[in-house]
Amino acid sequence: MTATLDRPHVWLPGASDTPEAPLLLLHGTGGDEHDLLPLRDHLAPTAPVLSVRGSVLENGMPRFFRRLREGVFDEEDLRTRVDELTEFLTAAEQEYDVEPGTWRAVGFSNGANIASATLLRRPAALAGAVLLAAMVPFRTPPRADLSGKRVAVVNGQADPMATPEHTATLTEQLRAAGATVSVHTHQGGHTIDPQVLPAVAEFLHGANHV
């Protein structure tokens, strides 16, 4: 199957005088490809950005994969959607002249979950990830070699969905696969706390490469 740019997305070129690895922005449930664009100014203002809309609808709200109920993921659908997203990234690499596998995913909630699932299922697709309000995508994760991948898990200590237990389990799974994982917590709930963004920007600066 030939990969095509067949889903809604936004592409923002980076600064040509300061080459930087691209960001892949992945929104939460009910969001779209415009939701996380303001993060670029806080995290990596000169980086190219690809922001993608989820291809699944839940009661009219875009998501990246189906769930059986809140907190219970349809893992068969998740695997399919990871493969679809990876094919889309291949098309984007060709269209926008991006070196394959250099994407640094920045995902919130459902977007964070598709990002971590992509790392575990299709590790060559991403260089690393920032996982904001992230849960655990797979009950039993695929065998993956994440050596050289850098991941930040950024969760709220009062988050009723992405709980401290999720944070610990996801961190353990990623580290067991060889990833270097940095954990950043805040006092809030299921949200992006502006106070942690400087630390995330520093993390991305350390992960920047092309």
From TrEMBL:
One of its GO terms (molecular function) is hydrolase activity. Residues 23-205 form the Phospholipase/carboxylesterase/thioesterase domain. Signal peptide: none annotated. Pfam families: Abhydrolase_2. Transmembrane segments: none annotated. The keyword DNA-binding does not apply. Belongs to the AB hydrolase superfamily. AB hydrolase 2 family. This is Phospholipase/carboxylesterase. It comes from Haloechinothrix alba.
